[in-house]
Design a protein that fits this description.
single chain; about 160 residues
Length: about 160
C-alpha cells in the first residue's frame, strides 16, 4: 500500500510539472513561436489593445484584405491591421492571415516589445470586458500557444 501511494504521488508530481506554465521572453516567442506549440506560456509586460473593429478580422501589416501587398498608410479594404493599431508595419512580406474569433470570443491585439504583432490571440468576451477600448494596456498574459490556429488567452493581469 505504501508503494502504491508513493507511486501515485510521484506520478501526480510528474504530471503537474509536465503541464506547468513557462515564463517566456516576449522577443523569444516573437522570433520562434512554433517552438512553444501546445504549451501554456506566460508573457510579461506585453501591450494589449482592444478595438471595436478588431473583434472580427485582422491581417498582418502590409497585406490587404485580398492578400495583396499594400503600401504603408494605404487602404487595406476595411480590414483592421496591426500597423493601424500599434504603428508597426514591418510585415510587408507576411502571408495574409485572417483571425476570426469563435462565438463568445474576441480577437485581442498583442503588441510585442519591437512594436509588431504576430499571430492571432483570442480571449473570452467576459474576460475582455474590463479592457478599455482604444487604449494600450500593459499586462501579463497566460495563453495556450497554437501557431497554426489561434493562441487562446486563459488569464490576463493588468500592470498599473
Amino acid at each position: 500500500m505504501k508503494k502504491i501511494t508513493s507511486l501515485l504521488v510521484c506520478s501526480l508530481a510528474f504530471f503537474s510539472i509536465a503541464n506547468a506554465q513557462m515564463v517566456v521572453d516576449a522577443t523569444d516567442f516573437f522570433n520562434n513561436p512554433s517552438k512553444y506549440n501546445g504549451r501554456t506560456i506566460v508573457l510579461k509586460d506585453i501591450i494589449v489593445h482592444k478595438d471595436v473593429s478588431v473583434g472580427t478580422a485582422i491581417t498582418p501589416a502590409g497585406v490587404g484584405a485580398s492578400g495583396s501587398p499594400v503600401a504603408p498608410g494605404g487602404s487595406t479594404g476595411g480590414v483592421t491591421t496591426p500597423s493601424s493599431i500599434s504603428g508597426g508595419g514591418a510585415g510587408a512580406t507576411a502571408p495574409a492571415m485572417r483571425c476570426i474569433a469563435p462565438r463568445n470570443f474576441e480577437v485581442l491585439e498583442v503588441v510585442f516589445p519591437n512594436g509588431q504583432t504576430k499571430g492571432c490571440f483570442i480571449i473570452l468576451s467576459k474576460m475582455a470586458s474590463p479592457i478599455p477600448v482604444g487604449k494600450d494596456v500593459v499586462s501579463t498574459i497566460t495563453f495556450k500557444a497554437d501557431t497554426r490556429l489561434m493562441n487562446k488567452i486563459t488569464m490576463i493581469k493588468f500592470i498599473p
